[in-house]
Amino acid sequence: MSCSTPRPLEYKTYHNFAIKSLGFNNATVSLDLEYYNPNNFGMQLKRTDLDIFINGTLLGHSTSDSLIRIPKNGNFILPVKFELDMRNAFKNAFSALFNKEVMVKLTGKIKAGKGNLFLNFPVNYESKQKFSFF
Length: 134
What we know:
By secondary structure, this protein is mainly β. It has one domain (about 10-130): Sandwich (Immunoglobulin-like), CATH 2.60.40.10. It contains one helix and eight strands; from the N terminus they run ββββββαββ. Strands 3, 4, 5, 7 and 8 form a five-stranded antiparallel sheet that branches. Strands 1-2-6 form a three-stranded antiparallel sheet. β3 and β4 (about 55-65) form a beta hairpin.
Protein backbone atom coordinates (compact mmCIF):
# COMPACT_ATOMS: atom_id res chain seq x y z
CA MET A 1 0.00 0.00 0.00
CA SER A 2 1.17 3.51 -0.60
CA CYS A 3 1.23 6.48 1.76
CA SER A 4 -2.26 7.54 0.69
CA THR A 5 -5.29 6.13 2.45
CA PRO A 6 -6.86 3.22 0.55
CA ARG A 7 -10.28 3.94 -0.91
CA PRO A 8 -13.11 1.79 0.44
CA LEU A 9 -14.28 -1.26 -1.45
CA GLU A 10 -17.52 -0.69 -3.38
CA TYR A 11 -20.48 -3.07 -3.16
CA LYS A 12 -21.92 -3.90 -6.62
CA THR A 13 -24.56 -6.64 -6.35
CA TYR A 14 -25.27 -10.15 -5.09
CA HIS A 15 -25.34 -13.50 -6.90
CA ASN A 16 -26.28 -17.11 -6.14
CA PHE A 17 -28.82 -16.54 -3.35
CA ALA A 18 -29.62 -20.00 -1.96
CA ILE A 19 -31.34 -21.49 1.06
CA LYS A 20 -29.06 -24.34 2.15
CA SER A 21 -31.25 -25.69 4.95
CA LEU A 22 -34.73 -24.76 6.13
CA GLY A 23 -36.32 -25.25 9.55
CA PHE A 24 -39.22 -23.80 11.51
CA ASN A 25 -37.04 -21.45 13.59
CA ASN A 26 -34.10 -20.76 11.28
CA ALA A 27 -32.59 -21.37 7.87
CA THR A 28 -29.06 -21.33 6.53
CA VAL A 29 -28.66 -18.89 3.64
CA SER A 30 -25.72 -18.37 1.33
CA LEU A 31 -25.01 -15.77 -1.32
CA ASP A 32 -22.08 -14.17 -3.09
CA LEU A 33 -21.51 -10.44 -2.74
CA GLU A 34 -19.73 -8.76 -5.63
CA TYR A 35 -17.39 -5.90 -4.75
CA TYR A 36 -15.09 -3.60 -6.72
CA ASN A 37 -11.62 -2.52 -5.56
CA PRO A 38 -11.06 1.09 -6.80
CA ASN A 39 -7.42 1.09 -5.64
CA ASN A 40 -4.36 0.78 -7.88
CA PHE A 41 -3.06 -2.11 -5.78
CA GLY A 42 -4.29 -5.56 -4.92
CA MET A 43 -5.09 -6.61 -1.38
CA GLN A 44 -6.17 -9.58 0.64
CA LEU A 45 -9.43 -9.75 2.53
CA LYS A 46 -8.71 -11.36 5.87
CA ARG A 47 -11.95 -11.10 7.87
CA THR A 48 -15.56 -9.97 7.52
CA ASP A 49 -18.11 -9.14 10.19
CA LEU A 50 -21.43 -8.16 8.56
CA ASP A 51 -25.08 -7.67 9.48
CA ILE A 52 -27.57 -8.20 6.64
CA PHE A 53 -30.88 -6.28 6.61
CA ILE A 54 -33.82 -6.46 4.21
CA ASN A 55 -36.36 -3.62 4.39
CA GLY A 56 -34.91 -2.54 7.75
CA THR A 57 -35.23 -5.95 9.41
CA LEU A 58 -32.09 -7.79 10.52
CA LEU A 59 -31.95 -11.10 8.64
CA GLY A 60 -28.68 -12.40 9.98
CA HIS A 61 -25.04 -11.95 10.90
CA SER A 62 -22.11 -13.33 8.94
CA THR A 63 -18.46 -13.66 9.88
CA SER A 64 -15.67 -15.10 7.82
CA ASP A 65 -11.93 -15.33 8.29
CA SER A 66 -10.85 -16.96 5.06
CA LEU A 67 -8.26 -15.17 2.93
CA ILE A 68 -9.63 -13.80 -0.37
CA ARG A 69 -7.47 -12.21 -3.07
CA ILE A 70 -8.67 -8.76 -4.15
CA PRO A 71 -7.35 -7.63 -7.57
CA LYS A 72 -6.35 -4.02 -8.19
CA ASN A 73 -9.02 -1.99 -10.01
CA GLY A 74 -11.17 -5.10 -10.28
CA ASN A 75 -14.21 -7.00 -9.08
CA PHE A 76 -14.12 -9.88 -6.63
CA ILE A 77 -16.63 -12.18 -4.93
CA LEU A 78 -17.17 -12.42 -1.18
CA PRO A 79 -19.05 -15.61 -0.24
CA VAL A 80 -21.45 -15.06 2.67
CA LYS A 81 -23.26 -17.64 4.77
CA PHE A 82 -25.56 -16.83 7.70
CA GLU A 83 -28.32 -18.19 9.90
CA LEU A 84 -31.68 -16.60 9.14
CA ASP A 85 -34.22 -16.14 11.93
CA MET A 86 -37.45 -17.29 10.26
CA ARG A 87 -39.59 -14.86 12.31
CA ASN A 88 -37.68 -11.96 10.74
CA ALA A 89 -37.89 -13.58 7.31
CA PHE A 90 -41.67 -13.84 7.54
CA LYS A 91 -41.88 -10.11 8.31
CA ASN A 92 -40.34 -9.45 4.89
CA ALA A 93 -41.81 -12.36 2.94
CA PHE A 94 -45.00 -10.65 1.79
CA SER A 95 -43.18 -7.45 0.88
CA ALA A 96 -40.59 -9.41 -1.12
CA LEU A 97 -43.28 -11.47 -2.86
CA PHE A 98 -45.34 -8.47 -3.98
CA ASN A 99 -42.56 -5.96 -4.68
CA LYS A 100 -39.90 -6.40 -7.32
CA GLU A 101 -37.36 -4.52 -5.19
CA VAL A 102 -36.28 -4.64 -1.56
CA MET A 103 -34.02 -2.35 0.44
CA VAL A 104 -30.77 -4.20 1.17
CA LYS A 105 -28.48 -2.91 3.89
CA LEU A 106 -25.06 -4.27 4.88
CA THR A 107 -23.30 -2.94 7.96
CA GLY A 108 -20.19 -4.02 9.78
CA LYS A 109 -16.51 -4.13 8.95
CA ILE A 110 -13.99 -5.95 6.84
CA LYS A 111 -10.29 -6.38 7.45
CA ALA A 112 -8.15 -6.07 4.33
CA GLY A 113 -4.56 -5.24 3.55
CA LYS A 114 -1.31 -6.21 1.97
CA GLY A 115 1.73 -7.98 3.40
CA ASN A 116 1.53 -7.72 7.18
CA LEU A 117 -0.47 -4.47 7.24
CA PHE A 118 -4.21 -5.04 7.59
CA LEU A 119 -6.76 -2.30 8.25
CA ASN A 120 -10.42 -2.39 9.28
CA PHE A 121 -12.74 -0.79 6.74
CA PRO A 122 -16.32 0.08 7.70
CA VAL A 123 -19.14 -1.36 5.63
CA ASN A 124 -22.29 0.73 5.46
CA TYR A 125 -24.13 0.02 2.23
CA GLU A 126 -27.81 0.55 1.50
CA SER A 127 -29.60 0.27 -1.84
CA LYS A 128 -32.72 -1.02 -3.52
CA GLN A 129 -32.09 -4.38 -5.16
CA LYS A 130 -34.21 -6.51 -7.45
CA PHE A 131 -35.09 -9.64 -5.53
CA SER A 132 -37.12 -12.74 -6.15
CA PHE A 133 -37.60 -15.96 -4.22
CA PHE A 134 -38.47 -17.70 -7.51
